[in-house]
Write a structure and sequence with these properties.
Chain lengths: ~500, ~350
């Protein structure tokens, strides 16, 4: 291996009630692409925050090129050649690219010089970017370029990237990887955080796996299967959801010519959406975030009403019905945002069971609520979906994200829906729970329900859906059988590189 | 360094204990305040909290508690329904006035007829007067998205002008020697709202108790109350559960208006006895405080209304017998509210002393 750039020894950081990192040690070599793998909550973020000077370790040491390294703040880390691209961008929509980059600099040069530098660096690394374009008009992939170039202008020795591909189409991911490989060949080390195993296998030289804050193993991704890495991450053997062969029944949900204005200024309007889902079918809808997923769910749940004919359930028009009426007819939904949309944060699980369960589970009569039955229903969900909580009297916000997600999905699945629509059903959920949620969706379909799964996780859609369509700027592509599709084609359905210029490195 | 840490869920024990701690803290710091004014703090506190209930002249003050507490509780219960859902009716005072005008107007219209059905009609009229006054901000909000806080508040001043006009004009007692006010409703059996004046019992007290029970059942046992709470906690989740926001706005505003109107009518037919130019005394605004003191919980509001009435009466006695300035009493009442809201923090947060050093 090459020279060691950064060496971590025994890093420990505890927060009240949880040890985020426990005695973590590993080395990053000069020019190495090092993957940091782990499930949500494994301590990846805390670890990189320590390297970037945002969090101070309780104990342990870091050495950078043989020197003790104790950054007191991000500015100090940057001065030592460490740069970070965050998962969430911090850009001002109303300013142009160069202005945004100047804002993050200590002593910004004159705008003209900066623009020239931006153009130079961006072309050098195959990330073409017009410095005078307003950020508000850029796609997610282009925004990420702005953040990356902001880092590259500092000439970093170590570039930290936190889940960089979650907002990208497969084509955009390819462009990014070209850039990262070029950087690596020039001697810049990259610490790459992700849980997407195939990406890590194709990009990274070395991987460190974290589980519950501890370093549980290292591997060379190219020589390790995705499954082996996943099992290292989870710590147990992974069950792959099973799909039994099944025939599709009659059409359960039929959407034709559905258009809806965006409910807010920052939303996406739906434009002439067509789709049909049959009984027993899992219909996957992919797409980069913000292309109309929330709006589509709102139109299906009844939160947004449309013309009656635009949405038909078993042939009957339901487009003008509200959520309760649709639930009675068997059309159930589970939104992406768990706290505040699918569940009320300060209310107990019993009350949250009442939230959508009242109509179908007979939890009310003449408007009067049967709390005893609601509690039984909540208990049933907790048991059937292995929700970790002391009991149904606990507030929704006291549950971890994954547990609340299991509760939310379980609440709908146990109501025996005829059509179930889920948005990001396994977002932020650990691999074992994700597998059980996917299995529940498949079982539901096997029992004759129609399932629509909206997700940004392509692997998930490939795994469970029979037919696949992609949302792109509020338009739904024509559906195709998933079995016939490859990643390339899916990427094109999602909008390809979203008009971004392709690099010529 | 003191660190506030959000509790995973609200503490039941603290939400019960904080009102008590707040009252004790008010007594302590209020005592200090009275001490600096040169009064004996223990005597002052005893005068405010003890004398109205058990002192020498308690037989006179106890009925006052009911008279002052009933309208506060009745109005606050109505307001709490809206507040729970994040709908802010600030104009209860106006709805209170309108209820009194419409209800008393109905009673006076029957003069000099005496009949059993007059008081019930007045009650319906009182509720209707308050309801219609609250429907103005309600419909404007639903149709045009106006702010209900501003509209309901401004309508208070309209109602006050209307009250002046009524007491000087349409409802003025023709035999009142030019005095600006209506006939005294207590003088006629059909319009008298008292049940037993000696103990302070009037129909408004009964209505307040019924309202507490009604609100408790609504919020805890009925879908509508569940939707009100849901809307306050998570508006998006409420919409997902099938709540129609416009309908909820009209219901809660209408309900709070109707209860405020009832309070006005009972005041006019009972303790006040007549519509006069200075009929409005600020119950509608004080009830906002009572609603929050009672944590928007029906039983809490009942207790808060009683406590508020107690400090008003006790404050009056302290002013009279100890010569405490009125401003000191107001500061004291302000302290009570301040401590209640401040200690409320402990329900959702816990305070930790974190070590200042960084490892």
């Amino acid at each position: 291996m090459t020279d060691i750039l950064l060496s971590l020894k025994g890093l420990t950081k505890a927060y009240p009630g949880v040890v985020a990192n426990n005695n973590v040690s590993f080395d990053i070599g000069v020019g190495e692409v090092h993957a940091l793998l782990g499930e949500n909550g494994a301590g990846k973020s805390t670890l990189v925050k320590m390297i970037y000077g945002l969090v101070k370790p309780d104990s342990g040491t870091m050495t950078l090129r043989g020197q003790a390294f104790t950054p007191s703040e991000p500015r100090a880390a940057r001065a030592d050649g460490i740069a970070m691209v965050f998962q969430h961008f911090s850009l001002f929509d109303a300013l142009n690219v160069a202005e945004n980059i100047a804002l993050g600099m200590e002593n910004p040069p004159a705008m003209r010089d900066l623009a020239m530098r931006i153009r130079e660096v961006s072309e050098n690394y195959g990330l073409p970017l017009d410095p005078y374009k307003t950020v508000g008009g850029l796609s997610a992939g282009e925004r990420q370029r702005v953040e990356i170039i902001r880092c590259l202008l500092q000439d970093p020795k170590l570039l930290i990237m936190d889940e960089p591909t979650s907002v990208l189409t497969p084509q955009e991911v390819d462009i990014l990887f070209e850039t990262l490989r070029k950087l690596s060949s020039e001697g810049t080390a990259i610490l790459y955080i992700s849980h997407k195993l195939e990406e890590i296998r194709s990009l990274c030289d070395h991987a460190t796996v974290l589980r519950l804050g501890e370093n549980v193993g290292e591997c060379t991704p190219a020589d390790t299967t995705a499954r082996e890495m996943a099992e290292l991450m989870v710590g147990t053997e992974l069950l792959t959801p099973e799909r039994s062969g099944r025939d599709f029944g009659e059409v359960a949900l039929d959407i034709s010519g559905l258009s809806a204005d965006a409910p807010s200024d920052f939303g996406t309007s739906l434009k002439n959406v067509h789709m049909t889902v049959r009984k027993g079918e899992v219909f996957g809808i992919g797409g980069v975030a913000g292309n109309g997923q929330d709006e589509l769910l709102g139109v299906l749940s009844g939160e947004t009403t449309t013309q009656a004919d635009a949405v038909r359930l078993h042939g009957g028009p339901v487009g003008n019905l509200g959520p309760t009426a649709r639930r009675k007819l068997g059309l159930l939904t589970a939104p992406e945002e768990r706290l505040g949309h699918a569940a009320a944060p300060d209310m107990s699980l019993t009350e949250n069971a009442m939230l959508t369960g009242s109509a179908r589970e007979g939890l009310e009569s003449n408007g009067f609520l049967k709390w005893g039955l609601a509690k039984d229903f909540a208990d049933k969900i907790i048991k059937a979906f292995d929700v970790r909580t002391p009991g149904p009297e606990n507030a929704a916000r006291s549950l971890s994200g994954g547990n609340l997600q299991k509760f939310v999905i379980g609440r709908e699945v146990l109501q025996h829906p005829e059509v179930l629509v889920v948005n990001q059903p396994t977002w932020g959920v650990d691999a074992a729970a994700a597998a059980s949620i996917r299995q529940a969706l498949l079982d539901l379909a096997a029992n004759g329900a129609a399932v629509i799964c909206i997700s940004q996780d392509l692997d998930e859609l490939m795994e469970i859906s029979d037919n696949f369509a992609a949302l792109n700027e509020g338009r739904l592509s024509a559906p195709r059988p998933t079995a016939e599709l490859n990643v390339e084609e899916i990427g094109l359905m999602m909008g390809g590189a979203h008009g971004m210029e392709v690099s010529h490195v | 360094m003191i660190v506030l840490e959000k509790r995973p869920q609200p503490s039941q024990a603290w939400s019960m204990a904080t009102p008590l701690i707040a009252v004790l803290a008010t007594m302590f710091f209020g005592g200090l305040l009275f001490l600096t004014l040169g009064k004996n703090p223990i005597e002052a506190i005893r005068t405010i909290f003890y004398d109205p209930l058990f002192g020498e002249f308690a037989f006179y003050y106890r009925p006052q508690l009911l008279v002052k507490g009933a309208p506060l509780v009745l109005i606050a219960i109505g307001l709490s329904l809206g507040f729970k859902a994040g709908i802010w009716n600030i104009g209860a005072e106006g709805q209170y006035i309108m209820g009194a005008i419409v209800g008393a107007g109905i009673g006076l219209a029957f003069y000099p007829l005496e009949a059993w059905y007059i008081l019930p009609l007045m009650v319906i009229g009182g509720a209707f007067g308050g309801w219609i006054w609250a429907m103005i901000p309600g419909i404007l909000k639903v149709r045009f998205g106006t702010n209900e806080i501003l509209v309901s508040l401004m309508l208070v001043y309209v109602a006050e002008q209307l009250l002046a006009s009524m007491s000087l004009g349409l409802l003025k007692n023709p035999e009142g020697h030019g005095f600006p006010g209506s006939r005294n409703l207590n003088d006629y059996a059909s319009t008298n709202g008292w049940i037993d004046q000696n103990v302070g019992m009037h129909w408004g007290v009964v209505a307040a108790l019924i309202a507490v029970i009604f609100a408790y059942i609504l919020l805890n046992r009925h879908m509508l109350g569940f939707h009100i709470r849901l809307t306050g906690d998570a508006p998006r989740a409420a919409k997902f559960a099938g709540v129609k926001p416009a309908r909820l706005i009209l219901f809660t505003l209408g309900m709070s208006g109707a209860l405020a109107g009832l309070a006005g009518l009972f005041e006019a037919s009972g303790p006040a006895g007549q519509i006069t130019i200075d009929f409005s005394t600020g119950y509608g605004f004080t009830a906002i405080i009572v609603a929050f003191l009672g944590r928007l919980h029906p039983v809490g509001i009942l207790l808060a209304g009683a406590l508020m009435a107690l400090t008003y009466i006790g404050g009056d006695i302290a002013q009279g017998s100890l010569g405490l300035p009125a401003a000191a009493i107001q500061v004291f009442q302000g302290m009570l509210l301040f401590f209640l809201l401040a200690f409320d923090l402990l329900t959702n947060f816990r305070i930790r002393l974190a070590s200042g050093k960084v490892a």
